[in-house]
Amino acid sequence: xxxxxxxxxxxxxxxxxxxxxxxxxxxxxxxxxxxxxxxxxxxxxxxxxxxxxxxxxxxxxxxxxxxxxxxxxxxxxxxxxxxxxxxxxxxxxxxxxxxxxxxxxxxxxxxxxxxxxxxxxxxxxxxxxxxxxxxxxxxxxxxxxxxxxxxxxxxxxxxxxxxxxxxxxxxxxxxxxxxxxxxxxxxxxxxxxxxxxxxxxxxxxxxxxxxxxxxxxxxxxxxxxxxxxxxxxxxxxxxxxxxxxxxxxxxxxxxxxxxxxxxxxxxxxxxxxxxxxxxxxxxxxxxxxxxxxxxxxxxxxxxxxxxxxxxxxxxxxxxxxxxxxxxxxxxxxxxxxxxxxxxxxxxxxxxxxxxxxxxxxxxxxxxxxxxxxxxxxxxxxxxxxxxxxxxxxxxxxxxxxxxxxxxxxxxxxxxxxxxxxxxxxxxxxxxxxxxxxxxxxxxxxxxxxxxxxxxxxxxxxxxxxxxxxxxxxxxxxxxxxxxxx
Length: 485
What we know:
2 domains, 77% helix, globular
């Protein structure tokens, strides 16, 4: 492959970061606008839930097959298609006239998002090598962390200043610019032996995931012993257990199960699940606490999460650069442990607590988040050959989205149980106690995943990427720190 010019590298990074920012922003930007959406469209509570879940489920379910499609038809082409679908979906969300139209449009956003996510890391991997790759992933990690944390802030600004519809319409110019750059500046690539789309695996995995999240959501209303909930969980267990069997029967499965023989791949997947399932899932409940108990409006509550954003920025870019010079487990593992410590520092809430009680935890958790994102991104594609980069990036992001989708649903069920029977006199105290319990659960998850990352991620599992003349030397350099990694 011909050398890639610095100009192409810069524009590829810009396009990928614009797409990533837009997509991850939509994971959290809608949270602060939900009350306005509910009033405007006369939506019920289940409609509000599906407004969030339709997006997350589409992302999680489609990432694996979209990674295969990106390898099969070209990563730039799929990235451009994904940007188009997401931008059109955003327009439809912004002009939605009913809850059903909004839910279906959010699902369209998720489909476009899955295509973009599955090809974005592969685009970076094919474009950057050596030290430049560490810097590129550092920038990507900063954008990923900031966009997720900044969503409530921008959502509050747009909802308070204009209308909830603008939280979706603001994506249009960003999507158009990213698409233009992709079509004119980004270099196309595809591996010589790409896998075909695994339809059977996709259907089994999607049905299992939807059943799991449906059961978790319904348990908050029906109870854990309800027949519908039990059937949903049983179906999820059956389908997800059958998924590896289905994959083994496929000539070209959507991901290679032998990857799970690599401890680093397992550790990176666990870390991805833990990062999004802990801190990022807690954003939903922290925002609700700030609004429902402390009575801040959308903008005021969103602005308070800037503390986390700033701390994330402080460590994200340096972490990306360090990942080229040191074993990444010493960034990912400690980063998750810091997230765990930050969540524990947020505990101790009661009915009279001020938001300033959360500041130390915000800072520590934000610093940890910045340490995790960039090295985790490079780890996702670093343990596979370049031809499988699209598949690997899809798997990693699937674990992220499954983490946030299942954690939000499970935490919501636990929180609903805690709030059952609350009166006006006990509401604030019960609410604070419920958030306190969720923080403990999220902290335990982040801590356990941090320990797993430290134990499982090994430098010797990484595959050198780059031109053939460089790859052999890179393999020798990677072999040097084996004892430490």
